[in-house]
């Protein structure tokens, strides 16, 4: 296990869910955190919480879909924050659950622009610095949906399959450097994911996890922490994790209460 104390970690989608859980576990380990998300107020709340742990934090209000904003944010980081050691491409979402021929094209654009293009933009503007400094680690948050397709998951599954391919391609492109690339691909995790997918329909979102003990954001963050603290010659290429109640994207054990 290597120490990540004082390493600079950039986390996208840091205002909630897996991103916020990563911030907490990495702050406990002494990392310096660049927390990026669209929701400034949520970022400030998280920063206030982490301040109690004496964490060193820099906030970025950022929409990863905006290439120029990403380029500007990375190129204009203060010098003391510019040498990013770990990039966690966590920002992502699902919108809708429709048959492909009945899908909402705005939902498609939002998923493609966030899950694929946003990840590409951050990687494009952060990784050259890693190559120059001859150190670094990129962690992409994929999904079991990138390995298995489920009915009405069409475009979302396509975006996560792209994350899988991009992660593998980046690993090949960085061969010969010490930079590591990891894809962490969870199954069911209880976050705001379903709320976002169903455009704020809380009742429908709750049904997703009914009768199931899903993964928590902390469970996923714990796996990410394991990956980034392995000895420098070890690369965890890919991790698939699911709750015990899930065997595939379509096979879920739901317990009924008597």
Overview of the structural elements:
It is a single chain. With 258 residues, the chain is an alpha/beta fold. Helix content is 41%, strand content 14%. It has a single domain (8-241), classed as NAD(P)-binding Rossmann-like Domain (Rossmann fold, 3-Layer(aba) Sandwich), CATH 3.40.50.720. The protein contains 8 helices and 7 strands. A 7-stranded parallel sheet has the order 3-2-1-4-5-6-7, sandwiched between helices. α1 links the parallel β1 (8-12) and β2 (32-37). α1 packs across α8 and α4 packs parallel to α5. The radius of gyration is 18 Å and the shape is globular. The model has no long low-confidence stretch (mean pLDDT 94).
SSE blueprint and pairings:
Layout: E1 8-12, H1 17-28, E2 32-37, H2 40-51, E3 56-61, H3 67-75, E4 86-89, H4 105-133, E5 137-141, H5 154-173, E6 180-186, H6 193-197, H7 202-208, H8 217-228, E7 238-241
Parallel strand pairs: 1-2, 1-4, 2-3, 4-5, 5-6, 6-7
Helix pairs in contact: 1-8, 3-4, 4-5
Name the features:
258 residues; Rossmann fold; 7-stranded parallel beta sheet; 8 helices; 7 strands; SDR family oxidoreductase; coiled coil; oxidoreductase
């Amino acid at each position: 296990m290597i120490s990540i104390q004082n390493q600079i970690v950039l986390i996208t989608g840091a205002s909630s869910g897996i991103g916020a859980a990563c911030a907490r576990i990495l702050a406990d380990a002494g990392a310096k955190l660049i927390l990026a998300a669209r929701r400034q107020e949520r970022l400030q709340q998280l920063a206030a919480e982490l301040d109690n742990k004496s964490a060193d934090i820099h906030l970025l209000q950022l929409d990863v879909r905006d290439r120029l904003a990403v380029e500007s944010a990375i190129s204009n980081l203060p010098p003391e924050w510019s040498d990013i050691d770990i990039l966690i491409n966590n920002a992502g979402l699902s919108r809708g659950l429709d048959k492909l021929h009945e899908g909402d094209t705005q939902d498609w654009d939002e998923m493609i622009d966030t899950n694929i293009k946003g990840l590409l933009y951050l990687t494009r503007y952060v990784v050259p610095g890693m190559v120059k400094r001859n150190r670094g680690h990129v962690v992409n948050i994929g999904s079991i949906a990138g390995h298995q397709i489920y009915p009405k998951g069409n475009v979302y599954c396509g975006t996560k399959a792209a994350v899988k391919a991009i992660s593998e391609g980046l690993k090949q492109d960085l061969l010969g450097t010490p930079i590591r690339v990891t894809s962490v691909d969870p199954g069911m995790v209880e976050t705001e994911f379903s709320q976002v997918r169903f455009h704020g329909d809380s009742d429908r979102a709750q049904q997703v996890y009914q009768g199931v003990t899903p993964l928590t954001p902390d469970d996923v963050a714990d796996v990410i922490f394991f990956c980034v603290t392995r000895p420098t010659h070890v690369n965890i290429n890919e991790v698939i994790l699911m709750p015990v109640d899930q065997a595939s994207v379509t096979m879920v054990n739901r317990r009924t209460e008597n």
